[in-house]
Amino acid sequence: MGILVAIEGLDGAGKNTIVQRIRAQAADHGISMTTLAFPDYGNSITADLAAEALHGEHGDLSDSAYAMAVLFALDRRRSAPALRAALAEFELVLCDRYVASNAAYSAARLDQGPDGEVVRWIRELEFGRFDLPVPDHQLLLGVPPEVAMDRAQGRADTDASRAKDAYERDADLQTRVWRAYLDLADRQWVSPWLVADGDEAVAAVLRLTVPGASLRS
């Protein structure tokens, strides 16, 4: 059975970049690995509905933190068989966002803490009712809101397909999400957490599979 690691962070934190760096280093160390990304835009109807809502469609759907959380949870539930198959086949499975993102964004929207009702509800919904695999480790990329938001803006400026959604345009929300993530990491919510970035983040994930592994120079 492989190790499941969730990579978490703000929009613009560089999650995909870190995942690709880990992939390259894992290949150097002979580690078999695969990745999944959530939301699975373009493949999951619930993910696409959520994205459309955050870009102003579907009436007041995006006004409900619980409704949006359900859409994102259903997106992961759809991928549960593929995730379990990946864990059976590969030594390392990385998720670019996972359940903690739902908890952090929902808690931030509702101004609740890590022990609040919505975080408990998401845990029970996704790990309980939907029976999603619990991550063995969770990595929060230590990129603060001001840096992540600048990156997200630059991405939107150069790629018309990456226009910022309602969550990304809300600077106050992004700051609250960052604090929610830090609270979840401090509580070691669901499984062990690490807050790191860059080389430290890549090396930490490699060591989960190959103790003492070092980065390729």
From TrEMBL:
Keyword tRNA processing recorded: no
Pfam families: Thymidylate_kin
Record-level Gene Ontology MF annotations: kinase activity
UniProt cross-references to CDD domains, sorted A to Z: TMPK
Thymidylate kinase-like domain sequence ranges: 7-189
Highest taxon of source: Bacteria
Keyword list, A-Z: ATP-binding, Kinase, Nucleotide biosynthesis, Nucleotide-binding, Transferase
InterPro entries named in the record: P-loop_NTPase, Thymidylate_kin-like_dom, Thymidylate_kin_CS, Thymidylate_kinase
EC code(s) of this entry: 2.7.4.9
Keyword Transit peptide: no
Reaction(s) this enzyme catalyzes, per UniProt: dTMP + ATP = dTDP + ADP
Family in the record: Belongs to the thymidylate kinase family.
Protein role: Phosphorylation of dTMP to form dTDP in both de novo and salvage pathways of dTTP synthesis.
Identification of the protein by name: Thymidylate kinase
Gene symbol of the encoding locus: tmk
